[in-house]
Design brief:
- Helix content is about 45%, strand content about 25%.
- The longest helix has 19 residues.
- It is built from 4 helices and 6 strands.
- It has a single domain, classed as 2-Layer Sandwich (Transcription Regulator spoIIAA), CATH 3.30.750.24.
- A 6-stranded mixed β-sheet has the order 1-2-3-4-5-6, sandwiched between helices.
- The two termini are about 20 Å apart.
- Strand 4, helix 2 and strand 5 form a beta-alpha-beta unit.
- It has about 130 residues and is an alpha/beta fold.
- This is STAS/SEC14 domain-containing protein.
Length: about 130
C-alpha cells in the first residue's frame, strides 16, 4: 500500500503524491471551465517538479468528458512541456465510467506525438502496479 500526501485540491480534482513515486489526480464529477482545467494541469506540473516525479495516474471515475479544447491543449502544449521540464514519462489512466468520457481520454492518447508511455486501466490497483514497474 502506498502512502499518499495531498498536494492540491479543489471542487474538480485532488492531486496527491504516492510513495513510491507517482502523482495521482482524482477527478470529481464536476464541470469546470477550460481555464480551471488548465490550472489543475499546471498544478500537476508543479507537483512533478516539487516531488521530482515523472509518473502520473489520472483517476477519471465520474469525470465529465474532457472538452476538445483541453484535449488539444494537452497533446500540443502541456504533455510536451511536462516531458521536457519534468521528465514526464508514464501515465496510467483509470477509465471513467461513462463511454463518452472514456472516448475523450483515449482521443488524447491517440493524438500524442511524443513517446509518452501510457495505458488505460479499469482499477486503481492495476494502474498503481503498472506505474511502479521499471
Amino acid at each position: 500500500m502506498s502512502i499518499a500526501t495531498q498536494y492540491f485540491h479543489n471542487a474538480a480534482a485532488v492531486i496527491s503524491y504516492h510513495a513510491p513515486g507517482y502523482l495521482r489526480v482524482t477527478w470529481h464529477p464536476t464541470v469546470v471551465s477550460v481555464a480551471d482545467l488548465q490550472a489543475i494541469y499546471e498544478h500537476v506540473l508543479r507537483a512533478m517538479h516539487h516531488y521530482g516525479c515523472t509518473r502520473l495516474m489520472s483517476v477519471h471515475g465520474q469525470r465529465p468528458p474532457i472538452p476538445p479544447q483541453i484535449q488539444e491543449w494537452l497533446t500540443a502544449q502541456w504533455v510536451p512541456r511536462a516531458m521536457e521540464e519534468a521528465g514526464y514519462d508514464r501515465c496510467a489512466v483509470v477509465e471513467a465510467d461513462a463511454p463518452l468520457s472514456q472516448l475523450a481520454a483515449r482521443s488524447i492518447g491517440n493524438s500524442l506525438m511524443q513517446p509518452l508511455r501510457y495505458h488505460y486501466f479499469p482499477t486503481v490497483r492495476e494502474a498503481a502496479d503498472w506505474l511502479q514497474k521499471n
